[in-house]
Amino acid sequence: MRFTNLDMDALRSFVAGIEAGSFAQAADRLGRSTSAVSAQLKKLEEQTGTELVRRSGRGLVPTDGGEVLLSYARRLLNLNDEAVGAVRSPELEGWVRLGIQEDFGETVLPEVLGRFARAHPKVRIEGRIGRNSELREKIASGHLDLALAWDDGASSDAERIAALPLCWLGSAQEEPLWQAAQNEPLPLVTLEAPCLLRTLACNRLDSEGLAWRIAFVSPSLSGLWAATAAGLGVALRTPFVRSADVRVLDALQHGLPELPSLGLSLLRPGRPESSASSHLATIIRQALHDTLPEAWMSQP
After folding, report:
1. What residues form DSSP beta bridges with 54?
2. 100: phi > 0 → left, psi -120 to 50 → alpha, else beta; which?
3. Helix (H) or strand (E) holding 21
């Protein structure tokens, strides 16, 4: 049986082109000519025996076959880069301290730790799941080397990775007991203060002249999901990893304010970055690309 070996450079150009929406932009990003990138795409189509992209307006979008390949291509490139990093940096030692927002503790963190440990077994990694204010304090004091946190606009040098939509969440089983026309305070389910999203929810409601009350306070996301699922109130979060018993509420239908997106950023202390921290940041970016919808990812 003859096996087909996909070209890694062609896969990288294909992924870059889809993410940029244009292979001309991908060529600029990769430092290649547009004709070279187009030739790589043609080679991939010959290897796979299927058309991979189609035009949509002025841009390009993947075909059904292209979407299938795109998923595999990202995983192949991540594994390739992980392998190259492990071979080229076998001497990487020391330790690195990572902080990560609670929303990503059960999804992104295990993937990040696993990839990093396989690539750099001699580096000790210390992880901490925390709230936004705690992570920022520890970055500022030098007790963390890297942190994945919500962007509150306080750090001008933060590296934005993604922008997640904010939404109002309620029980999947129960209709909210509150309606704006009833002139009753909106019951809020929140995390303990200080909490960026709690403050944002209160400010948005105040700006719209809507009365509110804190109906339930939890020290953890699990408690927040449980109270929201039970119908005790409405929560403001992103739709990422929400409980199956919680649904996104239509803001207009329920008389709630429209909400913006919330940036997700990598934070670093103000000192030269170590090689271990730099490699960890790369793996975090890759893990988020694998986990979050493409529309949420920030373009480089």
Report:
1. 61
2. beta
3. none
Element housing 69 (H / E) = helix 64-88
Give the separation between CA 263 and CA 163, rounded to whole angstroms.
Answer: 4
Q: Highest mean pLDDT range out of 17-31, 180-194, 198-212, 261-275?
A: 198-212
Q: What is the pLDDT of residue 92?
A: 63
Pairwise CA distance, residues 7 & 2, whole Å:
16
The token pair at 265 is: 């950023």
Interatomic CA distance for residues 17 and 26, integer angstroms: 5
> Do the bridges between strand 146-150 and strand 94-101 make them parallel or antiparallel, or are there none, so unpaired?
parallel
What gap in Å lies between CA 108 and CA 291, rounded to an integer?
Answer: 7
Q: What pLDDT, on a 0 to 100 scale, did the predictor assign at position 87?
A: 67
One-letter amino acid of 247 = R
pLDDT at residue 179, as a whole number: 63
- Within 10 Å of residue 136's Cβ, how many Cβ atoms? 22
φ, ψ (nearest 5 deg) of residue 53? -135, 160
297: helix, strand or coil: strand
Q: CA 148, CA 284: separation in Å to the nearest integer?
A: 9
Indicate the pTM of the whole model. 0.69
Token pair, residue 291, equals 């986990």
β-pair type (167-171, 235-237)? antiparallel
Beta strands in the chain (DSSP E): 53-56, 59-62, 94-101, 123-130, 146-150, 159-165, 167-171, 186-191, 212-218, 235-237, 246-248, 261-267
Rounded distance, CA 228 to CA 244, Å? Answer: 11
Residue 191: Cβ within 10 Å count:
21
DSSP secondary structure of 210-233: --EEEEEEESSHHHHHHHHHTTS-
pLDDT digits (tens, 9 = 90+) for 216-242: 999 989 999 999 999 999 999 999 888
Q: Which tens digit of pLDDT belongs to each residue from 94-134?
A: 788 999 998 888 888 888 888 888 878 888 888 888 888 89
